[in-house]
Amino acid sequence: MAAEDGRNWERFDTITQLKRLVILVIAAATVVGSWLVLELDLQYVWTAPREMQDLAVRMYPPEWAYAPEIVWPLIETIHIAVVGTLFAMVLSIPVAFLAAENTTPNKLTYAVGKLVVTVTRSVHTIIWALLFVVMLGPGAFAGMVAIAFRSIGFVGKLLGEEIEEISFDQLEAIKATGGSTFQVLLYGVIPQIKPALIGIGVYRWDINVRNATILGVVGAGGIGVQLFGAVDAFRWSAVLTILIAILGIVLLSETISARARALAR
Amino acid sequence: MFGSQRLKWAVYAGTALFVLWSVVSLLSGVTLSRVSIGVQNGYLLLESMVPPETSSESLQRVYTYLFETVAMAFVATFTGVLLSVPIAVGAAENLSPKPIYLLNRGIISITRSIDELIIAIIAVKAVGVGPLAGIIAISYLSIGFFSKLFAEDIEDIDMGATEAIEASGASRFQTFVYAVIPQVAPRFIGLTVYRWDINIRSSTIIGIVGAGGIGTLLMRSFSRYEYDFAGTILLSIIVVVLAGELFSAYVRRRVT
Question: Are A208 and A127 contained in the same domain?
Answer without folding.
Answer: yes
